[in-house]
Amino acid sequence: MTDDLLEPLVRGDRRALSRAITLVESTRPDHRDRAQRLMALLPDRQALRIGMSGTPGVGKSTFIEAFGLRLTGAGLRVAVLAVDPSSTRSGGSILGDKTRMDLLSRDPRAFIRPSPSSAQLGGVARRTREAVRLCEAAGHDIVLIETVGVGQSETLVAQMSDLFVLLLAPAGGDELQGVKRGIMEMADLILVNKADGALLSTARRTVADYAGALRLLRKREHDPDGFPRALPVSATTGAGLDEAWAQMQALAAWRREHGHLDRLRAGQARDWFLSELRAGLLARLDAPAARARIADLGGQVAAGHLAPGLAAQQVLDWLDHPDALRVPAPHASRESPRMAGTGGIPDARSDRS
Ligand SMILES: Nc1nc2c(ncn2[C@@H]2O[C@H](COP(=O)(O)OP(=O)(O)O)[C@@H](O)[C@H]2O)c(=O)[nH]1
Ligand SMILES: [Mg+2]
To answer: Does domain 44-259 match CATH 2.40.50.140?
Structure first.
């Protein structure tokens, strides 16, 4: 069975792509079913997936606008997706930013999609992975996945990218310490932005500092000599952008040639599967009948009538054989296994692997 969205999507119709992403963002069971069928029909096209992270104000939007326009100017089709788990709290999104990527968003070769208004990292992760695949199927050459540098979102984006770029501001030696080692270890390219005007010399020093810090990290097998590396750029003047793109292409080409991109993606597909599995199991705990049972057992545990381990085992046994133990409930049909994977999991840990 096919899907009405498939043909226009594959043809590169932007409205179809938008609608398909809206579909994968939905947690409604019938939408999930349709989304999963659609995902299974997608042609196997590949874009270069570039993850990009940086704290608010570092210049991500300005950079993506300038960088994206260069890519579209070279004839490439570019999609920009945002992962911002805080977007509901801050009320912001990439399009709500001060820097709106006005030119890029009007470019027919570009497609920009803000973060969905879901505060759950788990839901955002699934939606973004699927949105990346949809953008690829729609014929984009480059998929840029932007995230603000908060908590788990960087790891998440790094886990769905071919290349991970960290955008940093010019800073004194003290602030260098502020970049967590774990984030440095994920970076393939560190770009020190705002290397212009009065900040130019500070930016150059900062590049040298980070280059030194990168050399101290353990060598990774998926890096050629000289990577990861640090470069100065200016999103406003455009200085260094061509060099940054050349470095990204060189790294991607080397990784492709040596089989690392395939290996990376195979590992990422496995991680995706595992996090879907965890999310699905957690969703079963979140179903109304399960919640009621868990609340009831939790009360018994709190009152000292039941041991915690025993109570947990009772729930697990019940999940294995819901029919054998089921108490007739008005919502009985809503706890069917088809609910698995429909989201609504109040636990971001489901996507850590
Ligand atoms: N001097 C200078 N300012 C920049 C540069 N890139 C961004 N900015 C400024 O930094 C501020 C934050 O930029 P924005 O792109 O919105 O950052 P984001 O929060 O990371 O998306 C804005 O006022 C930009 O004009 C740059 O390369 N040089
Ligand atoms: Mg921004």
So the answer is: no
pTM equals 0.83
Instruction: Identify which ligand lies nearest to the alpha carbon of 239.
Output: 1
> pLDDT tens, 215-244?
888 889 999 999 999 999 999 999 999 999
Residue ranges per structural domain of the chain: 44-259, 268-351
Closest Cα partner for 290 from 325, 315, 265, 262? Answer: 315
Tell me how far the alpha carbon of residue 111 lies from the centroid of ligand 1, in angstroms.
21
Query: Residues lining ligand 2 (ion), CB within 5 A?
Result: 60-61, 97
Task: Average the pLDDT over 339-343 and give the result.
Answer: 40
Q: Measuring CA to CA, which residue among 302, 246, 270, 14 is closest to residue 135?
A: 14
Distance CA 65, CA 95 (A): 12
User: Which residue has a Cα nearest atom 23 of ligand 1?
Assistant: 57
Q: Phi/psi at 274 (nearest 5 deg)? A: -65, -40
